[in-house]
Amino acid sequence: MPQRLLTSYPLADRRFDELLQAPLLPRAHWSRLFRELQGIHPQHMRERIQATERQIRENGVTYNVYADAQGQDRPWELDGLPLLIPPEEWRQIEAGITQRANLLNRILADVYGGQELLKSGVVPPSLIFGHSGFLRPAHGMRVPGGVHLHVYAADLARSPDGAWWVMADRSQAPSGAGYALENRLIVSRIFPELFRDLSVEHLAGFFATLRDSLAHFAPEGDGAKLTVLLTPGPYNETYFEHTFLARYLGFPLVEGGDLKVRDGKVWLKTIDGLKRVHAVLRRQDDDFCDPLELRSDSALGIAGLTECARRGTVLIANALGSGVLESGSLLGYLPQISEFLTGEALKLPSVATWWCGEPAACAAALARFDHLVFKPANPAYPFEPVFGQDLDVAKAAAFRQQLAAHPERYVAQELVRVSQAPVLNRDHARLNSPDIALGARAVGLRVYAVASPGGYTVMPGGLTRVAASADARVVSMQRGGGSKDTWVMSATPVNSSFSLLRTTVTAAELKRSGVGLSSRVAENLFWFGRYAERCDNAARLLRVALARMVPDNDDEDAVGPIMELAHRFGILGEAELLDPQLIEASLLAAANRDTQLCGLAANLRQLARVAFNLRERMSQDNWRTINRLLQDPVFGREASIPEILNWLDRAITGLMTLSGFALDGMTRDTGWRFLSIGRRLERLSFTTLSLQVALREGQQDGQQDGPRAGKSAGLTWLLRLTDSVVTYRSRYMSRPEWLPVLDLLVLDEANPRSVSFTADGVCGYLQKLETAFGPCGGDLLAPLLARLAQLDPAVDLHPQSARLLELLEALRAAVFSVSERLATRFFNLADGRNRAMLGS
Amino acid sequence: MPDNAPAAPFMQPARYRVSHETRYRYFPAVSSARQLAHLTPRATEWQIVQSHRLNILPPPAEYEESQDFFGNRITRFALEGSFDSQSVFAESVVEVLPHAPAPAAPAPDWRQVRSACAEGNALLRFELAQFSASSWMAPALPEAADYAMASLQGGGSWLERLLSLSQRIQADFAFDPAATTVATPVLEVLALKRGVCQDFAHLMISCLRSVGLPARYVSGYVLTHPPAGQLRLIGADASHAWVSAYCAELGWVDFDPTNGKLADTEYITLAWGRDFSDVTPLRGVVLGSGSHELEVSVTVLPLG
Q: Positive or negative CA dihedral for A674, A676, A677, A683?
């Protein structure tokens, strides 16, 4: 019985109710869902809701409000109940959106072409010319296929009489389609039977159309057509969506620095050189796209992109300059524009909107002050929406005065009492309430259209945005709102066999290699490997060094070489080395304070930074492991030696976990090889350095006791450092001696930390790269590896061996040269930072 | 006699050779630069470009001449390969015909000009809207309107009032290259009472836009006069900027608020737009971090 579900459901107050047509009486198209809800056991419902939340966390669906490298992303808010739209109603929305997308595309073509709308005065010229989104350098450009507007979104709301209205147009780089898809993947699993029985229209076809249409419209030349998705980077609020869509559509995710203009065309910088880009699906605002011609203060863009757009050598979706339609100042003119350009009346009306830059419209708007919300007309002059009814007499007068000074910066829009829709009451889900109860929230619907060769195609669904309350006046993600899946019900059975995830791939299209890997990603992977290993080295070194500080330490090791190594590693300065009082404090700081630049904490920060830049390629597990280390209770705080030693154990375990992910969880592709080379080079550098320091100490001991004395002042620290204590003890029952220790750490090809194993690994990876990309440094290491093989344990494995010392020195030098070689060969292209120059 | 009187000296056409060199030094060397130049004088009814060349060293890998949105001539070029210095040398021979109205020429009241601009036919409004609307560097501002009104309120024609405004800017503001940068907003210049020609041009444009009069920013050069008895120093000139304002009866009239006068045959026009950012003589982007030094030398040489 409906009462049970509706106990806390508020009656709609002068607004449309999506669910009920009369108190306690659901609308016809909701009845099936309503019955289902009544039939579900509350416990099962709770489990389903909890499953939703878990899935959002596990999929890493986030919306960054305060995006930063610390991972303060906000989980995506999704209500489990979809918004239902019956077929006949959807057909009207679809027709209206198709017409509107066409119209907006024609407006863009006119504004960036003949400007008849402005010359005739149908649109006040100052509306466009005074708008910061009108990009003069984009005027006269040739857009491929005549399409400016590839992806269009409209924000719809339903008024109390049940009619849908357009509140705003999104013409620049509409967001949310990816979230709509993610919502669908989750919600269709909460109600699988219902999803099938209600014949809900599928979304995959829309995305296939987007992918295929971009390829269709993109210009030809220089190989197979390549579309990239351009993101401003991980700090953007919808970065999750960028990574999700890039993966779903199969487009490389790139930042401005990954692209380059040459010979009037756009190219992607890959480790294999420049690859022609034919289409750019951009999520970056257009004025940030080209520091040369658009905003010179932007370091993000691609210098020369505008020129390529003008020549028509690249498709940019949406075209540069399309943001000029977004501010709402045009809404009031659309009926007459439509009449002028197409002779048609608008099928889907806009909410009454006035651009205050036109005196007559401004006067009309001010007369209805209390019924309006004022919004910015120009993104160059932003402000928070102002509700006329909220202002007292004095504030209203002050606001009117502000408006009078710059009327062209204001748009006034009629306040709409938007509809309310049912939501699952979360509190009931969490508490062990015996019943499911529905709440109500104000909702808005964002719908999408994509340009295809046959005209605009509307996504049969959309992103339902949910306000924080039932009577909210603004529905916005930025203001703490949530979302819903949108189920467009089909009048005919839906073909459920189609999904983009199960698209047809021919054998020729199988992707196995990393060709196309961008230089930036390759460089980040390389440094991820290096920093992960460097953290591990720092943690082990600190653990050995700090253990020496504990009074009951039973090691017979000399403290000298350990501190010398800490000095060479950068953890101890000259001053500390001479003053034992300072050593302890320095070592502690190196462990958990990121102010100590060569210490563990600082290197963990670097690791996190690199990982952040690689987020689209890193699994959530990697990310979680790193975050857990950075959020460790001792991180950055005062701590005792035992506390720090415990922390070092946790850190080493965490770092081993990361290493395990790389070993076991990553495909052995080119990217993985860069990561592995970085890791091995770092290890080679550390192991050779440790051996050099130990051998030097051994020389001094040896000089006192005569050459080739078997005695050593304790080598356990060296074994600890290289995680080889257990192996050593299992092989030799003696205390560590030079010959077996050096054999284990230098020559033993089975010890993953030996010089021989590490160098051999680097050589192997380099050879793999070289078969694909030509020489890249293998020749620097191969001769050293040969010399290593020629070492004679009986002759060369002691501290006085010049051959051994020379070889270790040469290996350490080779680490630098190989690194340099890789940077020159693969990463230099990655330096994409723009610097603007102005000359008077 | 008046009919046969020789024209006043400023009524003669004038010819100039203008050279404008920009040198960059990069630390460290850079491998890629992409630039856009507004260094070719614009041909107009009263300005004849007799010759022009642009020498770029090292030679650019890409080079293209075209027109910008405002009809100015622009050059785009790109350099590839490692280089630590760069030079862009523009040389033009230009003849400028007299075109400024006499200061006492008949002109309507400025309010009539404003009404004519606001209420003219759609096409005129379309053409003027570019230059009436606020731009980023020369916005309409209540403070600029206040400053302008002090000059506009007096009697006399649009021409006299605007000339008076430019003279007042010259008198009120000190020329001080250290006081501002290319990014200093008009409002700050108005408070500082100091700046350079760009600042004064932006200020006067803001003043005019604030009261509903269209105005555009002109980039170019002005002939300087060496102190009596001294030779002209090569390279000691600079690029200049001034204001063009619209009056239906007189067309576009050029005012130089830096020198407080009408601009005529001593002025060589490169390009015009809404403000400096539309017509920056040379702008560019290099790839990579590091720093650069910039040196500009300009010579305006009168030819016989």
A: positive
Strand partners, B291: B27
C-beta atoms surrounding B184 within 10 Å: 18
Cα distances from A636 to residues A596, A627, A645, in angstroms, run 11, 14, 15
pLDDT digits (tens, 9 = 90+) for A183-242: 998 888 888 888 888 889 999 999 999 999 999 999 999 988 999 999 988 778 888 889
Q: Considering only CB atoms, which chain A residues are within 8 Å of B285?
A: 291-292, 296, 303, 834-837
Q: What ipTM was predicted for this assembly?
A: 0.92
Q: Please, what is the average pLDDT of chain A?
A: 87
Q: Where are the beta strands (DSSP E) in A25-145?
A: 25-26, 62-63, 74-75, 78-85
Percent of chain A with pLDDT over 90: 57
- CA angle A222-A224-A226, nearest 5°? 95
How many helices (DSSP H) and strands (DSSP E) are in chain B? 7, 13
Interchain CB distance below 8 Å, A136 and B68:
yes
Whether residues B281 and A839 touch (CB distance < 8 A) is answered with yes
The confidence score (pLDDT) of residue A180 equals: 94
Say how far apart CA A593 and CA A589 lie, in whole Å.
5
- The identity of residue B188, as a single letter, is E
pLDDT of residue A706: 42
CA distance A773 to A796: 37
Task: Find the range with the poorest average confidence among A507-511, A591-595, A660-664.
Answer: A507-511
What is the least distance, in Å, from the CA of B69 to any CA of chain A? 6
Query: How many residues would you count in chain B?
Result: 304
The CA-based dihedral angle spanning residues A227, A233, A238, A241, taken in that order and rounded to the nearest 10 degrees: 40
Instruction: Give the number of other Cβ atoms within 10 Å of residue A196's Cβ.
Output: 13
Closest CA to A199 of A321, A32, A8: A32
Q: Is B290 on the interface with A (CB under 8 A)?
A: yes
Size of interface A-B (CB pairs under 8 A): 116
Number of other CB atoms surrounding residue A229 within 10 Å: 21
To the nearest whole angstrom, how far is the Cα of A832 from the nearest Cα of chain B? Answer: 6
Closest CA to A327 of A382, A399, A282: A382
A112-121, A663-672, B98-107, range with the lowest pLDDT: A663-672
* pLDDT reported for residue B163: 96
Is residue A637 classed exposed, middle or buried when 0-12, 13-18 and 19+ CB atoms within 10 A define those classes? exposed
| Alpha helices (H) in A294-333, listed in sequence order | 305-311
Residue of A144, A449, A443 whose CA lies nearest to A277: A144
Report chain A residues whose CB lies below 8 A from the CB of B198: 840
Residues ≥6 apart with Cβ < 8 Å to A149: A101, A104, A105, A108, A171, A318, A319, A322, A451
CA–CA dist B134, B261 (Å, integer)? 24
Beta-sheet strands, E only, within A533-579: none
Does residue B284 sit at the A interface (CB-CB below 8 Å)?
Answer: yes
pLDDT in tens, A457-510: 999 999 999 988 777 776 665 555 789 999 999 888 776 555 544 444 444 444
Q: Is the dihedral of CA A364, A367, A369, A370 positive or negative?
A: negative
Query: Mind listing the pLDDT tens digit for each residue in A704-746?
Result: 444 444 445 578 889 999 999 889 988 887 788 899 999 999 9
List chain B residues with CB under 8 Å of A828: 31
The SS3 assignment for A98 reads helix
Residue A790 main-chain phi, psi, to 5 deg: -85, -10
Cα–chain center distance at A413: 34
> CB-based contact (8 Å) between B287 and chain A?
yes
In whole angstroms, give the CA distance from residue A781 to residue A837. Answer: 42
CB contact under 8 A, A831 and B289: yes
Task: Residue A64: count other Cβ atoms within 10 Å of its Cβ.
Answer: 17
